[in-house]
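pasting for ref
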Amino acid sequence: MQAVKVRKGDLVARRQDKVMEWYLIQVGSVTRHYNYAEITMGANSIIGILENEWFSCDYTASEDTTLIVIPCKNAEDLRALLKAQANFRPIFLRTALEQRHQALCLYVSLKQKATLLHTTAQNSYNDYKALCSQFMMPEHSFYRLTHFEALTMQHRVENWELNNSQSLMKGYLREYLQLMIQNDDLCVGAIMEASAQMHRTAQGIEEIANYLMCNRDVLWNDTEDDIFHLYFHLAVRLASENKDLSACQTHMKEICKTMKKLDIYDPMQVDECAKACKNHQFSATGDAQTNIADEDCVAHIMSYAGYDKEEIRKFKLILQSYKKLPDRTSGDKEVRALRKAISTYFYEIYKRAFFNSMSPVNRPTPILQMFFNFGFMDVDLLGVEQTNALVRFSESLGLFHYTHIYTIYEWLKSIYCGEKEPSRNEFDLDYNGHLLEQLKQGEITERELSSLRRDQNAKVAFEIENLFQSTHKSVSGRLSTFCPILSSDELMSSFEKMAATAARIEQSVNGIRSLDYSILYREILFSDPEHGITQEELMKEIMPDIILLPCVGSRSVMWQETSGVRTDTPARFVFPIFMNTDLDEQMLLAMGRYRWEICRHVQGSYWNDYRVKSLTAEYYDYLQFYRKNKDLSADAKEKLKSALLHARNNFREVFVLDYVNWIKYESQGSFRLNKVTRDILTRYCPFSREIRTSLSNNPLYQNAFGKLEIENKKNTKRLQALYKKYEDAGGEITADLNENLRFYQM
């Protein structure tokens, strides 16, 4: 077993990574990150022992930590390991029980918070209505609460499970361990039972965390459409009539106290709440609760972006003409001109508003947040009911944020802050290449070139004018009738059901990774001549950046296969933030296009040269000469001719359709491909070990899978010997080296 040293703050395991091995913490500690909570794991804890196929959360080193890599990922591996080293039984079982208990305690804590949130909201609102009645004041309706239900769990932990774990850990742990370590069956059974329970508990924790995230705005949110501000505005009215407002202030303080106890709000929000309770002079304030549905949202957005009244009036006239159209999807020349004019304005408004929002003093309002993230501009186009629904939904923007997943607003911010470089344009030129082309054409000078290379505003403008505008229409699926402003005409369901949230995207990506394990792996170079490795090619998984555009749409776009010239940079996929088609289907199409384009990128000018074996070269040769291929039946040739016709002779698109069938059907043992296609995909897009095992008895796969197994074993043996020699020479086994070894064991 290898020892791996991890520095403080480094990622040990990433959420939704495939569990290929476990890690015993020898020295130091590791933090397990959940939404709204963390669990610290100390020495002798084992990372992965209670995980299922995928890691359920992120693990980071809390301090400089030494980990022992345990070659184990399932019950069969565990049984073999414990049989070989019986002294591991008490260590493994104890840590499994302790980690399960920690998760159960966290589950209970979060569930109590969910109950406290719901109870406080219901009681506070009932008391608010009673106060309004008592003082004969009109009450503001709070539509949000009529849809705020108590937490209902799909993955629930029963009370007896909690009590059982509590009693075991506090009173009978030694006796239980002594009994269960008597043989492998008892020990493995106890650990896997704890693992199954832990998996359900982790799912329950995620359910509760999502509930808290989606409903915390009931007590306080930045739109002031919440229970705290119901009391606040009631206090204003009472003060204006010189009535006693002490009851209102008491309730406001109680809500503030609950917010602190829940610990799910931004510290700035809690601070604002406390200041409103303590320092506000109610007699000096008017009652100005804002209803977004009653706002002139177009004027609000354009004023924020710096437009004068004349420009605002001009755009509103164009928009009014569009809204009056009997058929907004018409192909008439006048209607097309209106849509084009609105689109031109939309992107210019977006650009100016974005730059304004980068100033610390210009915090985007809720209306601006809806504009930036969802494309909302006009209440009439979306409808009052849907606008109110979007206001409520916009409080859950955190659902779209995760590593490598961005709303377009967050993506542009990352470019503005220098964290990301702009994407390539439709001519396949990156930002620097575009500037050089402008210099060549005489559009800019050498001095301007030097300045523009450092100009973050120019980089953001380039991204808006290229990736954003070019793909916005494409992902909408309405190429001839596209309008960038969010409209009720496009909605087929609720925002919640259509949202392409980070969790849904992760699940979709992982579904493909679990079948085509190598799809996101790239070759990188590792060199440490000082310790004996001059140059070694490593396989490293590079997750794509996924950008969500503000629209309702039906398509995905694989915009670029790498972020730069180097192959070890993330691809860029673009999706609509609201999907009206199957997300999994669109993700599969994007992945298929990525498979083709990354091979072209790596192979360069040899991408279609049959003498240099590759996925694209063999597939290109197969499609080019299919009529002469003796391995294809007449029926197969006819189907291929039809596929080429349907794809307009685009070889990549024919491959993508075959790849979809490969993943959806062939992985399940349902044969849809011809002999030649299956042979190519078996070699270049192999299934994961579990799928290969289930199909290994089929003669169609036996030969290819057998060769792959032999090759993987050979590579594993070579790498293990190389790593041992490297360690003996004083080298440190890095995370990349371990990941490379795991690749050949998948």
